[in-house]
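Complex record, two chains
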Amino acid sequence: MKRTVPLMIVMVGGILMMVQYFIPHQYSQAIFDAYVSWAPIIAAFALILGVGSLTRVHAHKIKRKSQNWQFSWAVLIPLYAMPILAHLWPVSLAGGMDPPSAFHFMFMHVQVSIQSTMFSMLAFYIASAAFRAFRAKSALATVLLLSAVIVMLGQVPIGDLIGKWFPQIGLWILRFPNLAAKRAIMLGVGFGMLATNLKIIFGVERNWLGGAGK
Amino acid sequence: MYETIGIWVGAFFTLAIYSFLYKENPVYRLAEHLVVGISLGYTMAITYDVVLKPRLIEPLIGGHAWILLIPAALGLLYITRFIPGIAWLSRYPIAFVMGTGMGVAFPLTMKSNVLRQLEAAMIPFYQSGMPWHVVVGNIVLVFGTLAALIYFFFSKPHKGPFFGTGSKIGIWIIMLGFGATFGFTVMGRISLLIGRIQYLLGDWLHLIE
């Protein structure tokens, strides 16, 4: 019951869904339609697990007054405030029930601002990584450096100033050698995914079972 | 008024995140914790609106689609993870999602990651009217893909004219590709940085148009 049944569910579900792709019949289509409507519902419940787990971790920190426990409130309050603001108490900042709502405000001006700034901050870290990676210590490192510099300069006005042909070289690198490397990687990833899929479906790979209840 | 307060709040959190470039501090930590809570809270609200309400609650109440109680019960089994004695029951919904997901993904991965890529790599080197740089590019594309694949093939030692030379050409192609990808990523991040600076200097301080 603890291990065999889940492994059987994986095998039967996996084989069934694999086979239905190759047999375009109304029954196989009905199975696929059921899957399409059921899977998001089941996945949505996984969110409760995530929220519960996060709540437990931060409630534990607050209870024990661990280091920086005050910041746990900054996770828990908006975590529960957002759904309340969206559904139970949709407060409007313009008065009444008209938009813009407090939910919209929190998303647009807090979350979007913080997330886009976090991504933009990666520019600084990429610059420092480039300083270490782009030292022309060998022929291969020089190729890496030249390719990156040509692609970067080709996309800004200074590339045009160097020569009309310069951005074209950047585009050529992106379109041909870059695509060749990416295609080979994608093929490798594809074969890896197929092998992993089969290993999971046929129960060779069982790490996903975890240790719950042994 | 709403926009003005929004811009001030956005500017505060933008500076809070950038303050990390100096060193980690409580304001940064506050912003970091807030974004975790807000994004998960937002996901909860959206999941209810987009998935649970239209796909489960409304069909159950309005259409009496009792069959949907099965995925609902399976989904609820996730919560048993919090009860040590019956935590193993959470494997059932995971098994369902994993098994069916793998089965659906198998032919699609075969199609998109393998067959389509192989098909796209089999192109003619030359056609009438094709400029010379495209012809050279096509040759690089076909042989470069093959060489990079040889580099990733570890079942044979990289020696001899085929595997040895092939893997050497492959690593050159991969380095060219990594350099280009790196350059492209840097430009993307820089444009985001420019966007944030424009927000601070334009929308917030009105120093630039």
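Note: Chain B is about 75% helix and 0% strand.
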